[in-house]
């Protein structure tokens, strides 16, 4: 499994993307600019995953969102489009260079969307701990985990604290180019961390969950 923009020749992926993804002009502009200008464009959130997340935001009436891993801001922009006008996104990254040079100039053309997003610079584990310490546990509706894979299980645990009952977590890259299906003795640290997170979620009695073959794997968890 891989992201649709990395695998355009797969007829199933191509068909599903065509009859699933409804991008706004701003989303398309940001995706195109990232692919054109960033050598790390494969980090871009897959449009089919962002569509799925936007649908969940509508379904559960989400207002407050955690976006872990900003990059050029594609996921933050998607959540801003789906949220109501009083919605709020806390987006986290240790590096804002791609955001500033590629994503922000596009997002700033849409002040109604930009005002919903707070771009926080720093390690996401610390930032999530700060929110928990400030009494924000149980007050978020939706979380997208898409930063350093070594912290995936940490992010899941902290997001579970920060989400209300009925809140949704999407964990991206959960199949990591199918590497998790290989012999575990061959896993590198990243694959090991993703595999551990998938198994932690499966064993977690405080959520209902499903691992989907969407994008390059998406683990969906609903807080009980
Ligand atoms: C896959 S990209 C995020 C893609 C973005 N969600 C999107 O939809 O396009 C991962 C991002 O995580 C960031 N990152 C890596 N380690 C981090 C950390 N410890 N805390 C916060 N962000 C981190 C990287 O700088 C990178 O921009």
What general outline do the C-alpha atoms trace?
globular
The bound ligands are:
S-adenosylmethionine
Let me know the CATH homologous superfamily: Vaccinia Virus protein VP39
- Main beta sheet strand tally, sense and closure: 7 strands, mixed
Total discrete domains: 1
- End-to-end gap: 29 Å
Helix content: 40-55%
Can you count the beta strands? 7
**Number of discrete helical segments:** 9
Rg over alpha carbons: 16 Å
Give the rounded overall mean pLDDT: 96
The assembly state of the depicted protein chains is single chain
Strand content: 15-25%
- The strand order across the widest sheet is 3-2-1-4-5-7-6
Please name the CATH topology. Answer: Rossmann fold
CATH domain class: Alpha Beta
Order of helices and strands: HHHEHEHHEHEHEHEE
Describe the protein.
The chain is an alpha/beta fold and 224 residues long. It has a single domain (4-223), classed as Vaccinia Virus protein VP39 (Rossmann fold, 3-Layer(aba) Sandwich). Helix content is 42%, strand content 20%. The protein has helices at residues 11-18, 25-37, 47-60, 74-82, 97-107, 111-114, 124-133, 152-162, 189-203; strands at 64-68, 88-93, 117-121, 140-145, 163-172, 207-212, 218-223. A seven-stranded mixed β-sheet has the order 3-2-1-4-5-7-6, sandwiched between helices. Bound molecules: S-adenosylmethionine (SAM). The site of S-adenosylmethionine has 18 residues, from helix 4 and strand 2.
């Amino acid at each position: 499994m891989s992201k649709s923009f990395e695998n355009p020749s797969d007829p199933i992926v191509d068909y599903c993307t065509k009859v699933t993804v409804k991008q706004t002009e701003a989303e398309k502009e940001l995706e195109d600019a990232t692919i054109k200008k960033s050598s790390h464009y494969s980090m871009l959130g897959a449009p089919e995953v962002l569509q799925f997340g936007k649908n969940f935001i509508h379904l559960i009436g989400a207002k407050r969102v955690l976006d872990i891993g900003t990059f050029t801001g594609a996921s933050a922009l998607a959540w801003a489009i789906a949220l109501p006008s009083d919605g709020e996104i806390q987006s986290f990254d240790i590096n804002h260079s791609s955001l500033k040079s590629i994503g922000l100039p596009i997002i700033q053309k849409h002040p109604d969307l930009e005002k919903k997003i707070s771009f926080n610079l720093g390690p996401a584990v610390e930032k999530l701990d700060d929110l928990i310490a400030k009494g924000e546990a149980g007050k978020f509706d939706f979380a997208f985990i898409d930063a350093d894979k070594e912290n995936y299980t940490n992010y899941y645990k902290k997001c579970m604290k920060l989400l209300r009952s009925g809140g949704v977590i999407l964990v991206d890259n959960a199949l990591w180019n199918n590497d998790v299906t290989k012999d575990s003795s061959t896993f590198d640290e990243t694959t090991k961390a993703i595999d551990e997170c998938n198994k932690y979620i499966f064993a977690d009695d405080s959520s209902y969950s499903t691992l989907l073959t969407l994008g390059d794997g998406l683990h969906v968890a609903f807080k009980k």
